Structures
1.
Amino acid sequence: MSDFVDKNPWNALRQLTNARIALGRAGNSVPTVPLLAFNLSHAHAHARDAVHHPLDTEALHEQLHALNFTTLDVHSAAPDREHYLRRPDLGRRLSDESRAVLAQLANESPDVVFVIGDGLSAFAASKQAVPLLQAAVPQLADWKIGPIVVARQARVALGDEIGELLHAKIVVMLIGERPGLSSPDSLGIYLTYAPKVGCSDAQRNCISNVRPEGLDYPLAAHKLHYLFTHARRLGLTGVGLKDDSDASLPAAPAAPVIGGEANSSPTPPSPGATASAT
């Protein structure tokens, strides 16, 4: 049967990623072995679970309190998961009760407010948000950081209203990204300067694929600190703020010499490339 399988020339790249690439081809389909491996991996089930699994806010608050963070709990206008998935607009606005709670705290005016939102993967928010904060917050010693807001049934733009009500200079939404078949727990970071209801995606920066298997916490924190610093200097985020943080990383080791010549293969892109919000 192996004579009928066309192997993909990118096969060596499979050693570098969990993504389902370079599987080969048998006729107009994938070979039997990767097909069976896919079915046994329960990848679809993990992705569905990530979307529907509720965020354990109690455990999240406990973890944050143990690290001496002050926290708040809010809910979007979507009353449950079904409404959240069918009505994305409801996930972008606060419930009346949550709005009233935040309005009472408007005199705090922090420099930065971090929001942890379930988004489309509560797995990501539960697993990645706290370690990321542990890596990022120590780099913000000269910033006034507001309470950590834990948001249920949240979309990215929910952070705009939260930041506006708290009079924050910058809001950072840490939110579960749409799960992929090999990454059901990937966290996205969305940074918005002068947040207010109605901000567009062009007004924020995104750092994606934050997880140990993708963009690790120290590198994500480095990128976030770079964006913070230049957002404050320029008074903006979004398309006018470019992420050139890789230039300030320690120099990579020299390329190995193979057969008497330097390896001239191009450097692969960073796994957490900055992109606009979706």
Note: The radius of gyration is 21 Å.
2.
Amino acid sequence: MSLEVWAEKYRPKTLDEIINQRHVVARVKVFVEEKNIPHMLFAGPPGTGKTTMALCIARELYGDQWRANVLETNASDERGIDVIRGKIKDFARTIALGGAEYRIVILDEADALTADAQHALRRTMETYSATVRFILICNYSSKIIPPIQSRTAVFRFKALSEDDVREFIQRIVKGEKLKIDEAAVKAVIYLCEGDLRRAANLLQAAAALGDKITEEMIYEVASQARPDDVKRMLENALKGRFKEAREILYKMLVMQGLAGEDVVREIHRQIYALNIPEKAKVELVEAVGECDFRISEGADALIQLEALLARIAASKAKAG
């Protein structure tokens, strides 16, 4: 069974089931009740319900015939101008089924469209506005050209809180009759960072390992650095114990096979919880940023992270 099965299974089917985004649901419901939606732009963090809301709109507008009246495409796969001029324009030309006045094009990851494709899309939106409505979905609305933004109703989705993620986890636990301890729930909440799709994937992968989901299982399937390990590594470096800090780093990168980028990301998250002066945190963030840049440019992750730990330990030695 492939991953994302549970994410799809527990995806809300109606607008009222969508978690947290009440400020968006309230506005969208008005359009749906009047059966006359405008072109829309959904922007916000991943896994917060943007695509789900677009599909819920289609279900409530068209009922059982919603699939026949909806074209769902992903701009990260088909991002060129040919897609707009061909596939999308052909769909926009056809008449809606079931007595509906218009059809819907759901364009996911629209911020991946090239500039030429976006300009072609703008023209298509103008020409076929009587027969089709566009729902553009993106993480960064700033990457959508202003002419398109001015032709759409913009809806900004909020990052989900821990309580929202916990509600979704409990929905899956109850539906699948899973056994899970509280530490594992907290680990899922921590790792998914408000992305419900990722939360469902972590639970599904962990459930395949045993009868009861534990914290260890969650971190094993996530293949991410454990916060406790990173915190101990940083504390050792801050106390000038470079050798002990390096041993923890070596275990994470070599023995556990973690990616250097993931370790850098977790170091960044742990900085703000450290018991050090604010000035030291600022300097540490700057050092982490430099390390992250070098790794992204192709430098060896182990060497760069060792250099980061050495820099932290050396600063302690100078201060001492």
Note: The longest helix spans residues 278-296.
3.
Amino acid sequence: MKRRHFLMFAGIRPRTLWLLAVSALPLFGMVAAFGVAPDTDTRPIPARTLVESLTPALSPAPAGQDYYRIDQVERGDTVNAVLQRMGIDDADIQTLLATPSVRGAGLARLRSGQRLEARVSADGRLQTLAFGEPGADEARIARRGDGFAIDPAPPPAEDQVLMRSGGIRGSLYDALDAARVPEGVAEKMLDLFSGDLDFRRDLRPDDHFSIVYRVRSRAGEAVGEPEILAAEFINQGHVYRAVLYKTPRGQDEYYTPEGRPLKKTFLKSPLDNSRITSGFTLARYHPLLHAMRAHKGVDYAAPVGARVKTVADGSVSFAGWQSGYGRLVVVQHAGRYSTAYGHLSGFAPGVHRGARVVQGQAIGYVGQSGLATGPHLHYEFRVAGVQKNPLALNLPSAQALSGPERARFLASSRIWTARLDLLRGTRIAALD
């Protein structure tokens, strides 16, 4: 794991400088002629290795000014080593580790990968130390005179609701960037509407999107992932909307403003922002076999490494190499349905025979394995083991909310649909 440091004042890492003088020798059998000036000393020059070790030094902070340093525990680290690396005075480290309340907070039991943030004065005296997971599991220690104590009141996390809106002029991603939509929020929006829209085939100029999302921060630093509260995509005049609903079971689900589930039984496409290069047909000339063959699937053009997602919940029934498919994943869904994803460059972590997968989860990455003339995904939809054209099937839909639960949803979602109305009416790019 690569260690990361963030420091307000410049520092020099330990390093070793190697200087090597070598005599000229023929390289890999190559011969070259060189002119030699008169009186040139042509005796062999002895090779010497010079090693210079530079002691790490942190530039001192201005008097009276503190600096922050962030580090994380690496495999084999001791707590003492991490704190020393963060520039904390040795006497403070000993006092800190000898404080009973600090030991009780688990400082001596930090795991590999856990993060620490320290505020240290110019002379190395520790002022505050935070470690663990940001939020409820984070412990914060503060100086109390010559000792330390657990801070009983960490700064509360602050929620901020942000709104973004934009129109499609060129590419979708350019429009999202222009509206300052964070990458993670953009990906979630695409996933939300991927059951209704193919963002490669269906987009048109003047399409419009609006997003209302919540970010949480503590002491100016993001805590957790942004959460989309509501989103709208207007495609060719057709309005698609999604509103977050926290179910009585504590699950986060998205529904249309009328209470219909946004999550379809099957997504329209296993790839984001891709185009179809070859459709389902019973007679196609195969460019490698040079013969007419049935093509019982759909090919999507995409770059090597693009994320391939499963179109529905299910379990992996096959993950491996299979003849012309190359690297292939087959997912068995509810009932008689299954889907296949071929020519992959690799499998996503945890994808193996018997593994459970959920709709939208990455199962592999686009490649060119097997009988393929270029990078693409070969996608098949099977019913009772027989390939069917996924673009022509009428698939079952999920059940809509009804009764008291629908009434509860409508009451809770009203505020977010009003925000979408505001964004559509004003066409603002951003509102914080």
Note: The radius of gyration is 30 Å.
4.
Amino acid sequence: MTSILRSIKKHILLSSFIFIVIVAIAIGFGIRKKFVKDLILTDPIKRGSIVESVYGIGTVTATKSYQLKLGITSTIKKLYIKEGDHVEKGQSLVDLDGTGVLTAPFAGIITQLPVKIGETVFAQALILNLTDLVDRYIVVSLEQRAVLHVHQGQHAKISFDSMREKSFEGIVQSVYSSGNNFFVRIGVSHLPPEILPGMTGDIAIAISERKDVLLIPVAAIDVDKVYVKQERIRHKVVQITTGIVDGEFAELASGDIHEGDRLVIPQKGTL
């Protein structure tokens, strides 16, 4: 009877041990499956080009703007135009007492007309403003540290809030200072007519470029290291240094990373 009880007890212990092992394997598999599922991987690392830029807010500016002012007091005899009118070069604008009819020096839009017929206009008072809305450029104000890297001939990309689906190309024409401010003039061709002087846009001026380099997604960089996905569950920690960064990618300057590697994007609680 005693031997039978011992045998039963032995089988119970063995069964319990097997059950515990099975449960542990199942839990471990579940944890591994969840861990792998939680990992977010980059696309395979590739070579490519990367551009470093400086950024600023640019203001659209008319190349030609004409303000009519007189050196003497006069009276408005007749107005041939109103605000918003398009005029051609040589078209009559205003007839002034003692001065005669004044004409447009170039084609453009009347953007200001603060006077009325019969009004007396004093010396140096504004009579009208004529602006060429077709010939435009962009002025960007930059900090000293940024403007040191900008020079004539560099390419710029311009975008506007109301037209985010489209960007425009420009060329740096000049870099200059005014007082304690630093400005960059950018020439832009083919701006649509709805982009008016005074509007602002986001400007990115390309200051350097690297070609045929390994590009690391910025999202995969954890301070100065990345996690390279291995065949098994574990990943390899690799120390790196970066060069040019364009916001989405960084140039790999040093580090044991190879073309085709996939990196683990760091997520809280998964690494």
Note: Residues 72 and 123 are 5 Å apart (CA to CA).
